[in-house]
Every structure is written in structure tokens, then in C-alpha cells.
Amino acid sequence: EWEHMWSKVWLLLGRESELPQTGDWQMEEFGTEEILMVRQEDGSVKAFYNVCQHRGNPLVEGDKGSVKRFVCKYHSWAFMPDGELNFAPDRDDFPQGNPCDNVRLQELRCETFAGFVWVNMDPNCVSLKEYLGPIWEEWEAREISTWTRTMANTMWLPCNWKVVLDNFNESYHVPTVHMGATTQTNRKEIRGNINTYFKETRFDLSNEGHNRMIMEGGYGVGATDKEGNILEPLASQLRFWDLDPADFKGRPEDTREAIQQAKRQRGPEKGFSHYANIPDQQFTDAFHYTLFPNFAVSVWSDGFHFLRARPHRDDPQQCLFDNWWYTSPAALETGMERGMGADHEVERTMLDYEKDSIGPAIEEDVAVFVTQQRGFRSRGFKGVYLAKQEERIRRYHELIDDYIEGRRP
């Protein structure tokens, strides 16, 4: 996987907003590598391997900082933000010539899109736009580059990274894991905040290997009390858009179209200028994307749920799992989205799997990740038996195999 897949694909890493000034840097670990992303004088971002070209010592420790030069603590070799070697002690003592004339930091292909920094270890890779295919235009229209991180939890999980992505490549588990469905449950009648019935869910596969799942806003079971009154948080959402919850007593399903129309009509006057680029369906429905190989995200009209799994450097039964949330500027300003009102980015919090919760819904997923990892190692497990609605999982693993065997989409 590392040699033939990870080193050949575009990887979503840092956030541009964390690099506002020239010389600002951010470092992320990815498997066996540490990637250094640096803001340049011309406003662009370059990416380098975090390693001095003298004797291999890492240049920086920690997640981010700002420098005029990167100075190696071993022998004081100093590199400029653009990778140029600016100083080496005793430079006339090198038989092969002055290292400042011959040595630079090792650079990776780097592009920015949707406010994120993306890197590729393959110098002969296709452009990021070509790699993302239809994702590029959809996300560009949403103005995601302006959205702010308002929640950031990260933890090491005792499971392989593919277990995490398999889960987010299907909705088959949602009624059971998240809604308590049993063998007696009629899945066609489950209509919580999201309609999980597979025959009413749209599943899309792109030629580039990414995919999309669209689940309608359900607003059925769980949205009302016994008398039919609309419950929270749906009631507050209706009131925010100048709709009276009492008008929908006994008919919560009607709120979906009403919210769509209200957002379309009242969004601009409330400061939600980006609504002009969003289809009505996305005002209420879950647009869930899985970007090959390790990034899943649910994109709503005013927030996106960032879910990323990164491989451990030497243990395939561990992965680093990021569970983050980003919010649009208008939703932050009004306090509409998730009750947020912050005016700055939230720092990432490292959680302990044994002690901390990563959040109620995701905690339910995480519990399955860990038990499933145990099951995969059993001699009694003879391979998956997938439903058609799980075809994204099938395609996902076919694509990993394709890369390993030297074929790309």
C-alpha cells in the first residue's frame, strides 16, 4: 500500500488559513513521512519532507510555527522557506563542493483547493483538478475555502485505516448502529433526521475512484412528541428561518421542503450569500463524499463533517482518526450552525481512546471499528458478502488493489 498507493495519490493535509504569513509552516505526519507545508513570499504554499539533507535529522518538531529559516539542530544547516540551503558551517570542507550550491529540501507536488493543502509524493502525478474529477466543481461552488474549523478531535484507534473508510462508504449500518433498529424494524419506515432507506438514497461512483451518497432529510420518527409537536433541534431550525413549528404539527415530513424554500428565499438577507451556489436539496439533505483513499466528508449547506484516517507508521492495526467540523462564515456570525459563535479556529485536541469520547454518533461508529478489527483476524471470516448498496466498498478495495498492481483509474 505504501509504495504503490499512498505514494501515488493526492493527500489532503493542512489548512491554508493556518499559514497566513510568509514563513508560516504546518507539519503533518502521514505514515512513515512527516510533511512540512510552508507559506511562500508570493502567497503560494510549498511542501517538503521534514528532513535535513545533510544527515537526515528532522528540521522541526511540533504541529506549526513560523520561521525566517529552518535550522537543523544537529549541525546548523539552514534552509529558506522555499527550500534553498542558505547556510552550512565549514562549507569549504566538502569535496563534492559547497552544499549551498548543490542541496535543497526535497519538495513534493503541492496544490491548494477548498482551503486545504494537498500533496502528492509522485512527481509525475496528474493535477489535483484531474484527480478530483467532479468533486472539484461541486466544492468550488460552495466557497468551502472560507469555512472555519469549530471542532477538532483526533485519536489513535486500534484498527486498520480501511476499517474506518469502509464504514463511511455505506449507510447500511446507520439504522442499526445509530438508530437502534432490530430484526423487527421496518427500515422503510425509519425517518429520523436522515432518511436511511437505501431505495431512496442516491449512490454515485466517479471514474476517478471517489464517490458520493445523498440521503434525504427525513424529519420523521423522533422529530415529534406523542401529540405531534415538533421537537428540538428541528423546532429551533424552523424558527431561525421564520417558520412556525406549530404549523407543522403532525406532519414533520413537510418541513423538508419548507426549509429548502425558506433558505432559498431568506438566505441572502441573513448573510448566506453562498446559498446562490447550492442546490435546494443540499439545504436539508446529507451530501456525503468519500475521496480516495482516506477522506470522508458530509457537506451540508453551512457545515461539513471532516473524517480522515491516516495509517500508523509501522502498525497496520492502528490508525490516526480525525473527527472535525467546519462552519460557514454566515453560520458562525449568526450562531445558527450547531450553536457556534466562535471567531477563531479551534485547535486540534488529541483524545485518548481508552478514556475520552470522540462524540456521541461517531463514538458508536468507533465501537464497531474496534470489534470489526478483531473479527477480521478470525480464521472463521471467509470474506465480505456485500449488498448492492455497499458497492462503494467493493469499488474502494478494487481501486486499492489496482494501485498495488500498477494500474490507476
Secondary structure elements and pairings:
Layout: E1 11-15, E2 24-30, E3 33-39, E4 45-49, E5 64-66, E6 70-71, E7 78-79, E8 85-87, H1 99-102, E9 107-113, E10 116-120, H2 128-132, H3 134-141, E11 148-157, H4 161-167, H5 174-179, E12 202-205, E13 211-215, H6 234-240, H7 255-266, E14 286-291, E15 295-299, E16 303-311, E17 319-327, H8 329-334, E18 349-351, H9 360-376, H10 391-404
Parallel strand pairs: 11-18
Antiparallel strand pairs: 1-10, 2-3, 2-5, 3-4, 4-9, 6-7, 7-8, 9-10, 11-17, 12-13, 13-14, 14-15, 15-16, 16-17
Question: Which descriptors apply to this entry?
Answer:
about 400 residues, alpha+beta, eight-stranded mixed sheet, seven-stranded antiparallel sheet, 18 strands, about 20% helix
Describe what this molecule looks like in 3D:
- The chain has 409 residues and is of the alpha+beta class.
- Helices cover 21% and strands 24% of the residues.
- The chain has ten helices and 18 strands.
- It has helices spanning 99-102, 128-132, 134-141, 161-167, 174-179, 234-240, 255-266, 329-334, 360-376, 391-404; strands at residues 11-15, 24-30, 33-39, 45-49, 64-66, 70-71, 78-79, 85-87, 107-113, 116-120, 148-157, 202-205, 211-215, 286-291, 295-299, 303-311, 319-327, 349-351.
- The strands form three sheets. It has an eight-stranded mixed β-sheet with strand order 12-13-14-15-16-17-11-18. Strands 1-10-9-4-3-2-5 form a seven-stranded antiparallel β-sheet, with no helix packed on it. Strands 6-7-8 form a three-stranded antiparallel β-sheet.
